């Protein structure tokens, strides 16, 4: 029997939104089991989290180092860490794990700054260990179907990309744990909306098209009175093949929930997908045909088909998409190919995107190169 | 720490569709852990399943009795069984578990026949143990929201119910393990479509309205040439308060996937929900207002709100709905109230529905009472 | 120049809903011009209507006979009449026109009773004049596209038909001119909902499939307390080729507007269309493909294409569908073929449907033949 | 009786798309009648058009001047002209009509250039005659409902506007009369997509919000190889109150038909509407409620309610929206208020928008003021 892989979580303590999500995603396919965690630097809180996750109390640690040491001393210690702590902890957490020879799966963003991301890229290369980034939306089966079809020429040469990520939950005063850090430059970094969700749209656009963004023009705004970080973003894009693009992200669009979506047009067709209705992909062709491709259905290619757990008509969603990334990471740990899992390259490009967009907008710089 | 509950699975061997679904659902909230199974009566196949599920090889048994005995002998034996074997095994499996003092969560239908269901109802009553039935669709948060709102009078007195369950996958020759048993009277029982999916629609109609069906008129047909069991069903309904209803279920509607849905109308409003777009509920009122209620959103009542794992805009689906039933069952095992989990009453009524519909249609009996 | 055809309207006086609709539809393509009317038997009201329609005051008559005589005396008298008066006037109006050698386009229903319809059928046959019935929904381009594709075998042999017509506007006390006559047996005839809208669903089902209903089982109810006529109808259908069908019509489903729709399934595919979103037709095939056919688009056959006035993406609706029937009738008057315009056969079958459904439901007769 | 107003058409000869549309729209409410036309400068073609429209052959003229003279000589000459000729004819046509004391309703754009528009504005002011511009989409009832609700504060202070107009029909080689002139700088003017459809989006954004655009940043591209005019446009906007905006228009997005739509967000709510589904308006509020407002329904304000011809659930579309503008213009001619009909101010602002966007994009000028 191939045993379950053992995961240690870094972060994800009481009140965390994303920690429990990672736990569900990691364990969904029974490839992986949460066995340990450095959930908080406060021992009491870390123990409380361990209790919530129902793990062995002895394996709820109060620091990353303690976890790495404690697990190394066990016969059945952790196989990898999942980093879900605040952004500025991503680098130290990953650094410590890699130094201990432990692979890393990290929540996005890769790090707090581009410089940190570059440092981490070097560490990963030197360590020669698996490293993955949970750009969740690239785990949706129909996102992968879109990618595969575009790569196979279904819409011809990509000419135009529209990617949007509307939300409305920060349209008022930011209240609550999840909101407060996102509007605080000390905790969120340079970017607000652009770093929180704009970067998801950016990564998705590159993921689905297989094309790199080479230039951008950014217009970031802070709409809510008194807000210091951007909460509404428009970024014009140019891709490596000359394709034109637009990226819209906002957290002040009242009534929008989590509306990540893309429309991609080539010279022979077009495609559209939206995260809130993730089980259909629209495909149009230049002869006037409009097709709806259904998740789990018979029209899917092998990658998308393999990432459904239920027959067509049984909706899968965000958690299952997230679990597909863990499945990919588990495959990598077992020495199998899982090339679609976002990793260092996505991380570096994403951090460069945030840094470039923030500086270009602040300086009203017009079109600037996105170098990485 | 409240430990995870330990589950033994009965059925769910190689090639099973529903076994892995139960496993994911059971473990999603880390309330429960799959630790043992009598996955098949063939020892080799049971062992293979155990390996797929990554459980301890010693706990993959070749019979229910072996599992019950083996687990009873362990300090950390199973806390309950999940019955996912073919329909005619449901009664013996549940009987054995109950005799061993083990609670039962069973896939629908309760048993193969109404007589068996009545026997099982007696056994459960005598044992005084928790018993649940996974009528999955009653686990959707917005189904519960609809139920709660209707109970609170949001649409006034219910007058009309339309519940539909269209599928198309049995429109041709039934091929493959999942299809073949469903069209074979020896394995599926008296009912084909009516027992496989019509009964889901029936249970959902009663669950959401809180009203019992008291009379029905059934017209079941076998559309595919040569088919012995019904594959297309129309059933007219009357509810206890006089409300009129229609239940449509079919497995020969080409292009339909898993289209369970309901529309319920009262004298003050109406509601509509569809399983393939489960994250919205439409609510109309007699003054002309049309509202869309979103899963995870701020307009939800407590029960629906508590059954979302992610914020609004992050689609949850079939597996999460299923997991809500396991969460309810775990609560019952821990001595907490979870009154919405379907159980004996739903099971008996559902079996009576199937039996009554089949006989009434065969006899062209017109309106008949649904007694139970 | 081929001149515009001259129309005289019978009925459509002050407060009429359908009169102005007919006027718009008739004139939309400039094939026809409203020039005269017997809008009301009250001379003052007929004159007022004429003023509203902005016709020559001398041509607003107070009786059908006066109009027929007056127009016959003119060089440029009317070419046909449009009958839009209450149902029990349909026969005398048509009889008078035919006797005067004037073709008739009539609003549905054909007459107030089946016996009257049979009389009218004889009169039309004897007169040898064009007669059309405005079953509006058969004028939608995508309804015709569905009909043409089904006739061409796109979904194989039709096996199942679901046709629905939900409305909610009579869920409360019937108030206002439009509501009051519909719930009054003296004015509406034997059928309430079944005659007002159920018959539209019936005609549409036969129109699109090209199949005749041969048997039915009707369950008509009067849901609103005190109502004498049916306001909620379920009718099971069998078609000439053995296909199964269900017809649902209701006027008490709060929140529904004018939701006429159909889903038709064959052994090779399925189709769905809904009047409230009339510019798309969904076509599914047994290999799992789902196609959206767009009004005005390049995938349409000749009949549907010829019945769009604007390019794809410019929504056309109810009035344009209605105008397509007038276009057909004008073609007939000019001696051209327009075989899809509903006429005597549709009228007779529809009246038989109403009569049969009402009596079968009243008598709880079970399955009965639909003879005509 | 208030007689029908008499319209003379300028342009709209054989092969014209928009001429017949104007004719249908003008006559839909029987306020107006097409009686004359200078359909083409070729007498044969003008006569042919007159025959198609079924007007008196004597009133199909070969020049605007001939029509104005001929009609002036009649007792029942035209009351106004509808200008539907190519863009560069708009000014001379309007100038001639105004000089003859004849009011003008013109298709957009107002003129071929901003300078011409300014000249025309002066002529209209001097003449003191009604002048309207058919920015069609502002005639939709739910667009007016959105405007009225926003003006009444339903979404609070407008903060963000996203307006889009995707089309795909010029993604390939431009073939056919309608396509060819649009990609030819000699006939279309400076702007391609921006002038053809981008300007509709611009006008709609200002119309619905009641706010003027004060600054813009334009990025216009010519995507199809060899194309001289823009076919894909992104324009960032700032409104007078500081609100941020984005305007996307494209004619190379394969599979898009006529997807004009807007989403407008304030500090208290948001609204969304799309031309291809024009009979619903989505309204969200900051407390999490989502409402669907239906055309023709009871939730509408007076202006929107007055612009529906059928009850809710009977789809109205593009032609009915267009007809609402003619109804407004007829009201103006009769001396009644119809303040929502677009006119000189919309025309000037639109022409300035096109000119500014084209020059700013060509010069990569960044943010520029939109002065008018």
Summarize the structure in words:
The structure is a homotetramer of 372-residue chains. In chain A, a hairpin with a 2-residue loop joins strand 10 and strand 11 (269-274). Helix content of chain A is 35%, strand content 22%. In chain A, helix 9 (193-209) crosses helix 12 (344-362). Chain A has 372 residues and is of the alpha/beta class. In chain A, the strands form two sheets. The first copy, chain A, has a nine-stranded mixed β-sheet with strand order 13-12-11-10-6-9-8-7-14. Chain A has a five-stranded parallel β-sheet with strand order 2-1-3-4-5, sandwiched between helices. Chain A contains twelve helices and 14 strands. The first copy, chain A, has helices at residues 18-27, 43-53, 64-72, 90-99, 114-127, 141-151, 177-182, 185-188, 193-209, 302-306, 318-333, 344-362; strands spanning 5-10, 32-38, 80-83, 104-107, 131-134, 158-166, 213-221, 232-239, 244-250, 261-266, 269-274, 280-285, 290-294, 368-369. Chain A has two domains: 5-129, Rossmann fold (3-Layer(aba) Sandwich); 140-309 and 343-362, Dihydrodipicolinate Reductase, domain 2, CATH 3.30.360.
- CATH arch. level architecture of the largest domain in chain A: 2-Layer Sandwich
What is the 3D shape of chain A?
globular
Percentage of residues in DSSP E strands of chain A = 15-25%
Number of DSSP E strands of chain A: 14
Class derived from helix and strand content of chain A: alpha/beta
Order of helices and strands of chain A: EHEHHEHEHEHEHHHEEEEEEEHHHE
Tally of separate helices of chain A? 12
Question: What is the helical fraction of chain A, as a range of percent?
Answer: 25-40%
What is the subunit organization of this protein?
homotetramer
Q: Which two chains touch over the largest interface?
A: A-B, 45 and 45 residues
């Amino acid at each position: 029997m191939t045993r379950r892989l053992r995961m240690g979580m870094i972060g994800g303590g009481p009140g965390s939104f994303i920690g429990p999500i990672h736990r569900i995603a990691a364990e969904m396919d029974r490839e992986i089991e949460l066995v340990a965690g450095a959930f908080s630097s406060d021992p009491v809180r870390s123990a409380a989290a361990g209790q919530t996750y129902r793990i062995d109390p002895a394996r709820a640690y109060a620091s990353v180092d303690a976890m790495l040491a404690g697990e190394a001393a066990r016969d059945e210690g952790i196989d990898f860490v999942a980093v879900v702590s605040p952004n500025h902890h991503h680098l130290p957490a990953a650094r410590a794990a890699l130094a201990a020879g432990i692979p890393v799966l990290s929540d996005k963003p890769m790090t707090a700054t581009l410089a940190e991301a570059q440092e981490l890229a070097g560490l990963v290369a030197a360590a020669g260990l698996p490293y993955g980034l949970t750009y969740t939306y690239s785990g949706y089966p129909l996102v992968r179907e879109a990618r595969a079809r575009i790569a196979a020429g279904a819409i011809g040469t990509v000419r135009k990309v529209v990617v949007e990520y509307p939300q409305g939950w920060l349209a008022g005063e930011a209240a609550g744990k999840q909101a407060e850090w996102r509007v605080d430059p000390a905790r969120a970094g340079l970017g607000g909306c652009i770093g929180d969700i704009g970067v998801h749209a950016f990564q998705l656009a590159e993921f689905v098209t297989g094309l790199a963004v080479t230039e951008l023009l950014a217009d970031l705004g802070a709409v809510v009175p008194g807000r210091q970080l951007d909460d509404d973003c428009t970024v014009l894009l140019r891709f490596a093949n000359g394709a034109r693009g637009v990226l819209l992200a906002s957290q002040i669009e009242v009534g929008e929930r989590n509306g990540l979506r893309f429309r991609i047009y080539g010279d022979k067709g077009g495609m559209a997908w939206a995260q809130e209705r993730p089980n259909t992909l629209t495909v149009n062709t230049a002869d006037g045909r409009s097709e709806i491709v259904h998740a789990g259905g018979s029209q899917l290619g092998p990658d998308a088909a393999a990432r459904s757990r239920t027959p067509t008509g049984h909706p899968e969603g965000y958690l299952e998409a997230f679990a597909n990334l863990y499945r990919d990471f588990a495959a990598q740990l077992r020495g199998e190919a899982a090339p679609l899992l976002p990793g260092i390259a996505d991380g570096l490009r994403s951090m460069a995107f945030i840094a470039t967009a923030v500086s270009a907008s602040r300086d009203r710089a017009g079109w600037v190169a996105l170098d990485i």
